[in-house]
Amino acid sequence: MSLETNWEEFESMCLSCRKCPLAETRHNVVIGKGSKTADIMFIGEGPGEQEDIQGIPFVGAAGQLLDKMLLAAGFDDTDYYVANVVKCRPPKNRDPLEEEQNACMNYLRRQFILIRPKIIVCLGRIAAKAVINPDFKITRERGIWTERKGTYMIATFHPSAVLRDMTKKKPAWEDMKEIRRKLLEIREGK
Ligand code: SF4
Hints:
It is a single chain. The protein is an alpha/beta fold. The chain is built from nine helices and six strands, in the order H-H-E-E-H-H-E-H-E-H-H-E-E-H-H. Strands 1-3-2-4-6-5 form a six-stranded mixed sheet, sandwiched between helices.
């Protein structure tokens, strides 16, 4: 099946999707937010309670922390787009199951093709395992760039993990500054 699509078709596919059991308990399909021509795509694991209610990713406490860090690091709203590995909320915020991630992955691929970001930032272990490497170890491998077919990829702690454990705040902030540095480097190389 071709992954090529346009935004209208893509959004309509997501909104009507019932390919995995998360469709049974969701209130809204949470597709993404931000600039559709962004150079950076942030990817989290899945919507939480507030995201499910509002239909928008990263609007709860973790999203507010992410917004603050992005602003402090000097990013502009037009620099980034934010999405998740699964587009429907796992009940009680449990980790999305492998079969749910697999069912949803082609939507993320389509989103990537539509946006064509230069940088992918995985927020947390689940996204890093799904996108970068199934054996990814977030504590050991965060902050390290890899490149695949011209796209730079990196992982950092999920902002909700930072909220739970403030010792992660400093490394997460270092990662954010490094992502900003990389973005400027790529743009200067244009
Ligand atoms: S999580 Fe993804 S695959 Fe599952 S129902 Fe929602 S949109 Fe479809």
